[in-house]
Amino acid sequence: MRTTVQDVARAAGVSVSTVSRALTGGSVSPATREAVVAVAHRLGYQPNRAARGLITGRTGNLGLIVPDLRNPFFADVAKGVTARARAVDCGVFISDTDEDPVAELEAIATLRHNTDGILLCSPRAKDAELLAAADPQNTVLLHRRVPGLSSVVADIVDGTRQAVQHLRALGHRRIAYVSGPEDSWATRQRLAGLATFDGDDLEILPIGSVAPTFDGGVLAGDLVLAAPATAVLAYNDLVAMGLLHRLAARGAVVPDRLSVVGYDDVSLAGMSHPPLTSVSVPKDRAGAIGLDLLLGRAGSMTAAQGAEVILPTTLVVRASSGEPPA
Amino acid sequence: MRTTVQDVARAAGVSVSTVSRALTGGSVSPATREAVVAVAHRLGYQPNRAARGLITGRTGNLGLIVPDLRNPFFADVAKGVTARARAVDCGVFISDTDEDPVAELEAIATLRHNTDGILLCSPRAKDAELLAAADPQNTVLLHRRVPGLSSVVADIVDGTRQAVQHLRALGHRRIAYVSGPEDSWATRQRLAGLATFDGDDLEILPIGSVAPTFDGGVLAGDLVLAAPATAVLAYNDLVAMGLLHRLAARGAVVPDRLSVVGYDDVSLAGMSHPPLTSVSVPKDRAGAIGLDLLLGRAGSMTAAQGAEVILPTTLVVRASSGEPPA
DNA sequence: TTGAAAGCGCTAACAA
DNA sequence: TTGTTAGCGCTTTCAA
After folding, report:
1. Chain C positions with a protein C-beta closer than 7 Å
2. Is B320 part of a structural domain of the chain?
3. Mean pLDDT of chain A
4. How many CB atoms lie within 10 A of CB A300?
5. Cβ of residue A6 near strand D, that is under 7 Å?
6. What domain range includes position A269?
7. Is residue B251 part of a domain?
8. Rounded mean pLDDT of B160-188?
9. Which of A59-73, A262-276, B1-15 has the lowest mean pLDDT?
10. Contacting residues of A for B46, CB less than 8 Å apart
11. B206-250 pLDDT per residue, tens
12. What residues have CB less than 8 Å from A271, skipping those under 6 apart?
């Protein structure tokens, strides 16, 4: 049988309420507290969070819902959340929905009643579904914005702009864009960034939508080579990696024949051949900030107030981008 | 205020115990059950798992402890666990210890009292520490074996043998081995596999230990080139990727000059340049089996009985291995 | 400062 | 088959 407050109280010769107070910071005499703490430690007492939560109404846990842990982007976000959670002694329920909007909604339904709040990362469900399923008071969206819910996002529009400006500065005038899932928030943000450019001295060539995966990038490779572009901006790093792979197979040297720029700057970006120029978005920081928002630790802002945090993006230049062919 | 059994009972005109029975599969008349279920659904009732756990002694949750979610190997394991957990309606507490043995032990201490069991993946702590911290009754080790605790591991010795045999069949006679963290279980297993070969017509050249990361592989690249080997076996895929990167930078063509074989077959392995030959270990399956063991769903075996599951490994041949230079 | 007692939401005896 | 009741381990009134 595990140690309970009862055991500690008996061993310390005080009442259970005194034990409780001593351990949670109530008013107890220093001597009593010291004694109780010592006994609790000696007995290896670990409070039952469930029982505590039952009465306080706070479980000390929160839920993190991600589409796919295997995607390094989400792994990074999860890392940021768990790191911060450990620092504030908060448990994290993880739910990997496998990119399934239905599983996502179910996870929200289960977790919202068994946690103090939910961190919903890049949800695939529609705005209306999310609004219906989530409690605005204790839900924070990560990397997605839905009116009526708190969110922490990166400045994707600006990031996209930085990427294009970088390519333009290098001399590129025709830039292909490989798009991700149509109708997704992230896709629309990227297009918004692109829209500020087309015209001028620059031409953006839409290559179409592919799955936001390595295979999607491979698929896009041939399409890009067939287009009159000297550079290509990919939906994300995974797509860019697939692109790199296919271009190499087709004998197109990067960046001599074609410059490639990715998005997200996941850890893989530095491992590709050549290393990938990419728009860096603060992934783990977004997770940590989301958690603070949920727990009301983010200074004046809280999730309940409908906070909208926008984090800056920065372009990380590596070897996959260079001057266009002469 | 959220809906409780009380609310459902009142609305359905029955007692709380009837509601409880109707919802958890006790003996109730079909008509009553139907009515209760309907009301519960209408009211959006979600049982409070904490309260339930308080009385049943089972929380319906388990803990998953991994060294680093950013490592694709652990992401895969986590994926296997969460997928299976979702199927059996079990919550998963995740804890990323950041490769810190102390954090690991702390996580065990916290989780063992607030979950039905712990899945401990590739722990970094010592055998004795783990034995002291964990409850053998409801702890399952993943990819690590400690006498006295249940475990699910891959047949690393055999996997290593397959890799070497593959290289020998290609004609290699001098194979470099880049080792991982000294004194780790995984490292010892690999060395055991290697030990069955040295001598014969084959020479294994130990290159030394590096961090099990991309950077570790980059570091090892030069060492490998300086050795008289025609092939190199890396501690894991991340190291192999770093190796590939450094070899390319040094102008050594893979596999013409040197064959490279990785370990784990993480998703990146297929994305490298050239695609990496790697020993595939069943990562997500290990996670799923571990969960079943913990929950007593793995047929006759349970964690409590000290189960030791060994999963087969298979070599996946890709383009990074070929015949040795003439 | 301390203790007694109530009760969080739920399930599991025990009766009816 | 159903309802009543007693807790699970904890915190928090309320008195002392």
Report:
1. 1-5, 7-13
2. no
3. 92
4. 7
5. yes
6. 156-280
7. yes
8. 95
9. B1-15
10. 109-110, 112-114
11. 999 999 999 999 999 999 999 999 999 999 999 999 999 999 999
12. B214, B241, B242, B245, B268
Between CA A129 and CA B301 the distance in angstroms is 42
In a domain, A87, yes or no: yes
Q: How far apart are CA A15 and CA A8, in angstroms?
A: 9
- Structural domains of chain B, count: 3
| Ramachandran angles phi, psi of A209, nearest 5° | -100, 140
- Give A118 to chain B, closest Cα distance, Å: 14
Residue A55 falls inside a structural domain = no
CATH number at residue B178: 3.40.50.2300
Residues A248 and A187 in one domain: yes
Q: Rounded distance, CA B74 to CA A94, Å?
A: 14
Strand C neighbours among B 2-61, CB < 7 A? 2, 4-6, 16-17, 19-20, 23-24, 26, 45, 47-48, 51-52, 54-56
Answer yes or no: do A124 and A267 share one domain.
no
* Cβ-defined contact of B82 to A95 (cutoff 8 Å): yes
Residue among A54, A97, A114 with most chain B CBs within 10 A, to mutate: A114
Quote the minimal CA–CA distance from B215 to chain A in Å.
Answer: 9
Using CB atoms within 10 A of its CB, is residue A253 exposed (0-12), middle (13-18) or buried (19+)?
exposed
Instruction: Give the CA dihedral B11, B13, B19, B25, nearest 10 degrees.
Output: -120
